[in-house]
Design goal:
Layout (H helix, E strand, L loop, with lengths): L1 H36 L2 H14 L3 E3 H11 L40 H16 L8 H13 L6 H11 L4 H12 L11 H8 L3 H11 L12 H11 L6 H8 L1 H5 L3 H8 L3 H11 L22 E5 L5 E5 L7 E3 L1 H7 L6 H38 L1 H6 L9 H8 L3 H8 L3 E4 L2 E4 L7 E3 L5 E3 H14 L8 H10 L6 H10 L5 H4 L3
Helix pairs in contact: 1-16, 6-7, 7-9, 10-11, 13-14, 15-16, 16-18, 18-19, 21-22
Length: 506
């Protein structure tokens, strides 16, 4: 019984120790995980922020620039192999056992610390070390901002046309109300009743102004639904007496289901005539405000480059161009061993150096992990690099994690939001992780490869006799790929391929 309580007490002590340790490590570990998961430009911003908040960190590029300005041997930039951990992580100036460090004999007020920090900043400034926000950088930044063009919104464009129209002041206010209720796609989001209620104007007046707004550019703007939008476009093109107008006016439900024979019967036209009319309808714009919609451009920076070397072999390189090259300031290291340095100042510097060292280690670990994962991707996806998506092989994060020697969740964090530049374009690292299907020869095909095969089969099919999902299964089986009909349907939906009865050409 005594042993039992002793054992429980020991377990409790160990648990308490572990919890205390976790509490101490949690902020640093969280920082390390955040650095690992952050995309390239976000990583740069995080490092820049740390560089500003930690005075013992300095950027090597600024020091190289200073050396070049002084000239001499110092001007020769030191080549750093980024595959190796920073040398600053090997030396520990915070070790209390340093023989050269004097014993603290007195205390100084904390204000000395602030004066010290400002003093070193003044020292660096007096030695012409360029600031991170130099005049040249500010001018370049301002030039970039001044060069950015603003895209006119659809609503602004419509208001300009309203001002140029022969509208009375009262009707212009109604036009403003209508335009304010038009969304970015060009559709009116309020009913006439709602506009009448909001404006307290007669319905006939609202309709008259709406007719004016619907005459504005782009064609189809101000429509209340797709049917009205397409009809407005045809009227603008003077095709109100065309077959396509009749189809949209009378057969919208059948058109949505692509029931060509029913449309032909209802309109009294031939199947060929209806088919031709549908092709012309397909050239109309379903979102008239599309050209004025704000562009959501996404700029990505590759973390990894995969290219063929001069020897013909594939090579993997890390993109370190945007990562500031940091080191621990020698000035603060020297300050640690000066007898005049108070204990408060020494403790402050010690904490900042520890924090800086952890940051350097975390950055190196991040780059090393991503590089190792990329090398394993190249090893497993060599055929993709040669021939493209058709040769993509199944690969899981668990498989890569076992080879790299990390946990699966680490691989997931490392590839999240990261991109690789390959001979076949810039792709997300997650692109290469996919499950697969078995073939009759025992090989495996990635889902992406199967989807590409499916897309090619549909593109080459006879339009008058499109392949059903069951037919596609038989074709895949003939090629040695085992696949279920529901899987074909799933992939077809993901590729935005219509079912066979909607793909038929009459």
């Amino acid at each position: 019984m005594i042993f039992y309580f002793s054992h429980v007490a020991q377990q409790g002590f160990q648990m308490s120790q572990k919890m205390s340790l976790n509490q101490v490590l949690a902020p640093q570990l969280q920082q390390s995980l955040n650095l690992l998961q952050a995309p390239m430009m976000e990583l740069k911003a995080m490092i820049d922020e740390e560089l500003q908040s930690n005075p013992v960190l300095e950027e090597q590029a600024a020091l190289d620039m200073e050396a070049r300005e002084r000239g001499g041997d110092e001007a020769e930039e030191v080549k750093v192999d980024r595959a190796e951990p920073p040398s600053d992580t090997q030396y520990d100036p915070t070790d209390e056992s340093n023989a050269g460090e004097p014993v603290d004999d007195f205390q100084k007020e904390i204000n000395q610390l602030l004066e010290l920090d400002q003093g070193w900043r003044d020292h660096f400034s007096s030695n012409n070390i360029p600031s991170r926000n130099s005049k040249d950088e500010d001018e370049k930044r301002q030039f970039m901002l001044d060069s950015v063009t603003t895209t006119q919104s659809l609503q602004d464009f419509l208001l300009e046309q309203a001002r140029l129209s022969d509208l009375s002041e009262a009707r212009f206010k109604i036009a403003e109300l209508i335009i304010g209720n038009i969304d970015d796609t060009g559709f009116l989001q309020s009913s006439l009743d709602e506009l009448v209620f909001s404006s307290a104007c007669p319905r006939i007046e609202i309709q008259a102004v709406l007719d004016v707004v619907q005459s504005f550019h782009p064609p189809g703007v101000g429509a209340r639904d797709l049917r009205e939008c397409l009809m407005l476009q045809l009227k603008r093109a003077e095709r109100a007496d065309s077959l396509e107008y009749r189809i949209i006016h009378d057969c919208m439900n059948e058109l949505g289901r692509r029931r060509i024979r029913e449309i032909a019967k209802k309109t009294g036209e031939t199947v060929d005539a209806v088919q031709f009319a549908l092709e012309r309808i397909g050239h109309l714009e379903p979102k008239p405000g599309r050209e004025y919609m704000p562009e959501m451009e996404q700029f990505v920076v590759p973390e990894i480059f995969i290219s063929r070397g001069d020897d013909g072999e594939w090579k993997v390189t890390s993109n370190n161009e945007h990562i500031p090259r940091l080191r621990i300031s020698n000035a603060y290291k020297d300050l640690m061993v000066q007898s005049a340095t108070s204990s408060d100042v020494r403790n402050y510097i010690r904490d900042k150096i520890r924090s800086g060292k952890f940051l350097l280690k975390s950055i190196h670990q991040r780059q090393s992990t991503i590089l190792s994962i990329a090398m394993e991707i190249l090893k497993r996806q060599g055929e993709f690099m040669e021939h493209g998506a058709s040769q993509l092989r199944p690969m899981t994060m668990s498989q890569v994690a076992d080879v790299v020697g990390v946990h699966e969740t680490t691989v997931s964090r490392a590839v999240s939001g990261k991109y690789i530049e390959t001979p076949h374009g810039v792709l997300e690292m997650k692109y290469f992780f996919t499950s697969g299907l078995s073939s009759k020869d025992g090989a495996s095909l990635a889902n992406t490869s199967v989807k590409e095969m499916l897309d090619e089969l549909v593109k080459k099919e006879d339009g008058t006799k499109p392949l059903s999902d069951e037919d596609l299964v038989k074709v895949f089986n003939g090629k040695g790929v085992k696949i279920a009909r529901r899987t074909v349907a799933k992939y077809r939906d993901e590729l935005n391929i219509l079912p066979s009865h909607l793909r038929r050409v009459y």
